[in-house]
Amino acid sequence: MMFRLAIVVPVFNPRDQWLSTLLDRFTDFKKSLEIEQVQLYIVNDGSQKGTDLNQIQQVLKGHPDVHWMSYPKNAGKGFALRYAISQIQSEFIIYTDVDMPFENESMLSIWKALQNQDVAVGVKNEDYYNSLPRQRRFISKTLQRLIKIIYPRLLSSDTQCGLKGMNQAGKAVFLNTSINRYLFDLEFIYLLSRTKLKQTTVPVKLRPGIEFSHMNTRVLFNELFNFFNVLLKKS
Predict the structure, then answer these.
(1) At 150, which CATH number?
(2) Among 16, 97, 163, 201, whose Cα sits 20 to 30 Å from the Cα of 155?
(3) Which residue has the higher pLDDT, 225 or 39?
(4) DSSP-derived pairing of the beta strands 92-95 and 5-11
């Protein structure tokens, strides 16, 4: 059966109580929608903790609209999303982070935009950056400046916001991405810029009290390599 909307969230070594928080927020979001055909797909990206399969299966018995997907080795958020999205047949897909950190109204705005757009891209407000650790705030702002210079025609320089939606046409573009970690979003937005798909940005807000972790330095160096790979695609 093709469901109307799928919500996809990747998970890797999550915090305590992550599943109950996610299920509560997913339930709240479903209640705010005008449709019933909504499914949640959780993709375990090779976690080493916090994802005991027996416990998860017990919890999910009471949630037939929630699906668990998993593979053994950590491969990155971009890989996890492609892994799940390639198997999902829903008419529309929204992906976000495992704690569903954006307000319901923001997710609803993405959903509403998809009624006449192929892709809807969340863009963050200044409050979002105030919630980031200094290191991540610096990285995010620097990346946006570089994108504005190097890719001036992109839909948005805020490519890394963790809330995006797409229809089946957008899904086809997303599945052409190849970056597995942080910059897969930039690659997606860049590939979109080379199509005639209808796309728009949507201002989004974080829930109160959301906290972000520091980024691994090794990941940063790997992402520099990916940034230059996207540059090569441009040329």
Answers:
(1) 3.90.550.10
(2) 97
(3) 39
(4) parallel
Question: pLDDT value at position 48?
Answer: 93
Map tokens 């441009």 to a residue.
234
DSSP state letter for 128: H
pLDDT in tens, 16-38: 999 999 999 999 999 999 887 99
Half-sphere exposure of 167 (CA within 13 A, CB side): 12
For the entire predicted model, the pTM comes to 0.89
User: What token pair was written down for 226?
Assistant: 């990916």
Would you list the DSSP string of 139-186?
HHHHHHHHHHHH-TTSS-S-TT-S-EEEEHHHHHHHTT----STTHHH
Mean pLDDT of the chain: 88
Sign of CA dihedral 222, 233, 150, 154: negative
pLDDT attached to residue 130: 62
- Which position has the higher pLDDT, 196 or 135? 196
Q: Which residues contact 162 (CB under 8 A, 6 or more apart)?
A: 95, 96, 97, 101, 102, 122
Alpha-carbon dihedral angle through residues 34, 69, 60, 96, given to the nearest 10 degrees: -40
Strands 92-95 and 66-71: unpaired
DSSP E strand stretches across the chain = 5-11, 38-45, 66-71, 92-95, 119-124, 164-167, 199-204
How does strand 164-167 pair with strand 119-124? antiparallel
The contacts of residue 2 (CB under 8 Å, 6+ apart) are 89, 90, 91
As to burial, measured by CB atoms within 10 angstroms (0-12 exposed, 13-18 middle, 19+ buried), residue 59 is middle
Domain count for the chain: 1
